[in-house]
Structure formats: structure tokens, C-alpha cells
Amino acid sequence: MGTLFDYLKWRGDLTFCEAPLNEVDSLIFSLLSYLDLKDIVPASHEDSGIPIRSAANTFFAKNPDPKKISMGLIVPKEIVTLFRTVKATRRFRSVEMRAHVNEIDQKKEMQFSATTFLPGDGTMLIAYRGTDDTLVGWKENFNMSFLEVVPAQLAAVDYLSAAAAAFDGDILLSGHSKGGNLAVYAAVNCAPEIKKRLTRVWSNDGPGFGAGMIDRPEYLEMRPIIKSLVPQSSVVGMLLEHDENYTVVKSRQAGLFQHDALSWNVMGGSFVHLANVTGECKRLDKTLNEWIHTMNPEQREQFVEAVYAILSSDNALTLTDLMSVSRLKKNRQLDPHVYETVKKTIGSLLEMNTKNLLDGLFQKKKP
């Protein structure tokens, strides 16, 4: 079993015309979308793109010291190494990148970013970025628990519409984490004429949706081309309502760290697939969904606003900002009601998790 880097050594000498784009390639594109390529990759769908090799050369010329390249607190820094590796392969070096956008809107509570890739085989792949280091990005994730639609989802549809208008061929969508959610949402909610051109949609450990989404006729129409991939101990991919028709991928990491898709095992032109997720993953899925459903939308909103008030105190904008000891000390001075809301809600989650854990142990002991 290999890694993404082993895959690039094995398949890197074949163009996309010689070996069709697969699920491993889609993840690589999704991870590259986390890179800050402002002023390197054109922002417009109408402008000519730039080959990956050229974009990478410019990126590393602007960032000569890899140790100083910041990806934030949670985005794996190995993505920078991945960028350096793909630019040297025959498979990826000539792939055109264009329409790189990154929109952070505090008022809308939106974090949206996407990049378009033209592999050279007559298709176009749109990679939606997952949640980055910004607190507003995390706030938008939490908002999914009580809002029917969030701004990034609407932006994903608009981005797809603009990309489709500037390109005539078949379209593929992909994303990791929240990016996977955006890819599926865009596919389900785009115009009928665009849906006809969509050939595959990959959600790589992307969270689910609000109530009713996966039962909508529009979702069921696109379901045959949607491929959801989750690691065996997935946490993020089990959040909210999700389609049970997912493919389980083996990861070298444990628990929540399996969300790092660079840990997913590769064999040949696909990931190493498993029959099912772990028992622990099923228990956590059950616990989280029960917990969410014990709260009505108003209670979920109150909890989210309380958590965000704690995290964004003292004008913190990113998770990296929160690592400051001085900020952590100031957080203790917030309104006691805010802390009480968070404490009570988290307490109910822990109680529910303990109950499900004990129920599981009891079931195992039954003759």
C-alpha cells in the first residue's frame, strides 16, 4: 500500500489522455486548492490559465523558504511538498490552472475558495477548497447545522455556472472536507443544462447536509455520479445527514487525524477500499446525530453563536490567532452566560456519548 507520493512515482509519467482521471487524481487536485495562489493563477474564468509547473515555479520563487510557508493550524503543510512533486511529473505539469478565487466575508459569514483545472483530456475539474484557518470558515461550517443553505454553497453554484459558460466539455467536481459538501451541493443545485455535462462528483470526507437534502429529487437525480469517500474512522464525513452510499478508504492515521487525506492508502489507480467503517465511527455517527436532533434550530444557533463568541474574542480571525496565550486568558472574561451555554450543550454530548458507549459494551456481552 502506498501514499499519494508513491502514486505520483507510479502514474506520474502518464498524461490524462493516456490514463483517465481517477479518484486519486481528484483528491490531489482538491488538496492543491488549499494553496494560496493569489496573483499567480488568474482569477477569471475568461482568462487563459497557467500550467501547474509554471504556477509552482512562481509560487516557490515567491516562497523560497518552505519553513516559512504558512498553511494555518489545520491544513497539512505537506500539501506544499505535494505541489513541488506534481510539478515535476509529466501527468500534472502541463495541467492548466485558472479561476482561482478565495473569498472571505465576515458579514456574510462566508469562506469560499475554488480552482479550475484543465487536465488536457477535454474535461474540466473544479476543486472546491475545504475549511481553512479562518474562524469565519469554521463558523460557516457550524451554521450548516441550523441553516438550510450557507453562502459558500450558493457561491459554489455560481462558480460552477461561470466555469461552465467559459468551457464546452464535460465537467468534474471535487473537494475535500467542506469542499466535498460544496461539490455535491453545486451538482445538485446547478442548471439542468450543466447537470447534463457533469460526469463525476467526488466528496472526500465531506460533511453532510441539513434535513431533507438527500431525499430531494434533485439529489436523487445526481446520486449515480456522486462518489463519497470517507476514512474508516471518519468524523467529519459523518456529520449531519449524509448518504449511506459511501466508499470507505483505509488510512494510516487514527481517529480524527484520518481527515488528513494525505494519510489515505493508495494501490494502483485507486485508494485501498474497506468493507465498512469502524464500530467506533458508527457509534460517533449515532451520537452526533442524536445530539444534533435533541436541539431545535434555535438552540443550535445559540450554541454556535456562543462558541464563536469565545473563539473570536479579542478580534481573533484565525485558529492560529487563538494559540496566543494572552487571547486565551482574555477569553475567560467573557459573559458567563456564553460559557454556560457551551458547557451545558457540550455536557449533553458527553452524556450521550457515554450512554452509547455503555450500550455498545452491553450489546457485545450479550450471549
Walk me through what this model shows.
Helix content is 41%, strand content 16%. With 367 residues, it is α/β, with parallel strands linked by helices. It folds into 2 domains: 4-278, 3-Layer(aba) Sandwich (Rossmann fold), CATH 3.40.50; 295-365, no CATH class. The strands form 2 sheets. The chain has a 9-stranded mixed beta sheet with strand order 1-2-3-4-5-6-7-8-11, sandwiched between helices. A two-stranded antiparallel ribbon has the order 9-10. The longest helix has 30 residues, at 336-365. Residues 325-329 have low confidence and may be disordered.
Task: Look at the structure and give the mean pLDDT.
Answer: 86
Q: Give me the secondary-structure category.
A: alpha/beta
CATH architecture of the largest domain: 3-Layer(aba) Sandwich
Largest sheet: 9 strands, mixed
- One letter per element, helices H and strands E, the order comes to HHEHHEEEHHEHHEHEEEEEHHHH
Work out the count of structural domains. Answer: 2
Q: Please list the strands of the largest sheet in the order they lie side by side.
A: 1-2-3-4-5-6-7-8-11
Number of distinct helices: 13
**Oligomer, anyone?**
single chain
The global form is globular
The CATH top-level class label of the largest domain: Alpha Beta
Radius of gyration, taken over Cα atoms and rounded to an integer in Å: 21 Å
Uncertain spans: 325-329
DSSP strand content: 15-25%
Fold-level CATH name of the largest domain:
Rossmann fold
Number of strands: 11
Helical content class: 40-55%
Distance between the termini: 38 Å
